Amino acid sequence: MTKAHRAGDAPIAVEVEKDKSYYWCTCGKSSKQPFCDGTHKGSEFTPLAYKAEETKIKNYIKKDSLHSYISSPNGFWYRYIVKNDSDTVFPVKGDIVQVSYDLLDLNDQIIYSKETNGVKEYVVDKEDFIPGLQAGIKLMKEGESMKFIIPSFNAFGVLGDEKKIGMNTSIISLSLIHI
Ligand code: FES
Q1: Alpha carbon 147 to chain centroid distance?
Q2: For ligand 1, is residue 45 a contact (CB within 6 Å)?
Q3: Is the pLDDT of residue 115 over 80?
Q4: Which of 5, 11, 150, 161 is the one with CA 20 to 30 A from 63?
Q5: For residue range 59-108, what is the model confidence (pLDDT) as tens digits?
Q6: Complete domains list, the chain, with CATH
């Protein structure tokens, strides 16, 4: 692994606001220390997400008390909308799957609808997609529909998509899969 650049020798005190998301620079190259400014792009470093974004997601899950969400070790949460108990096949590397998905914010407002996104044909683990969904798709069986809640570090990152998805934005994806 490449060594991180040494950003300084003294601790930097910062004030953080409740429920606001922060990303610490781990590569040492940001000009906005201790925060990431996106300079790490293209390197093997990624910023470290500060808990505040997770708190927001946990509050969202708490409010949706009618459903139970599963916490994935891959850094997102999900629940079933449609479950397929009769199938046992999960997508594996190299499979071509078709995914249709809406992207929403944590206020359940649609950012990009499935009509806008179109049906995405995705070769599992062989092309780039939203990282949280790349992992999520491998949990889905034919015809299943799931709701994923994905923190920004596993979605569009610190910078967002520089269009409708802002900086440090967690997203919700409602996805349906055909294998
Ligand atoms: S600039 Fe250092 S982790 Fe993003």
Answers
A1: 12
A2: yes
A3: yes
A4: 161
A5: 999 999 999 999 998 889 999 999 999 999 999 999 999 999 999 999 99
A6: 52-178 (3.10.50.40)
For a ligand 1 pocket test, name from 25, 43, 50, 153 the mutation site with the most ligand atoms within 8 angstroms of its C-beta: 25
Give the nearest ligand 1 atom to 28 CA: 2
Region for residue 117 given its phi and psi (left: phi exceeds 0; alpha: psi -120 to 50; beta: otherwise): alpha
Verify whether ligand 1 is closer than 6 Å to residue 149 (CB atom).
Answer: no
Q: How many CA atoms lie within 13 Å of 166's alpha carbon, on the beta-carbon side?
A: 4
Instruction: Ligand 1, residue 24: give the atom nearest the CA.
Output: 3
26 C-beta closer than 6 A to ligand 1: yes
Ligand 1 nearest-atom number relative to CA 39: 1
Distance (Å) from CA 163 to ligand 1 centroid: 21
Tens of pLDDT, residue by residue over 7-41, are 776 666 666 665 666 788 888 899 988 888 999 88
Distance of CA 151 to the CA centre of its chain: 4
Report residue 179's pLDDT band, with 50, 70 and 90 as the boundaries: confident
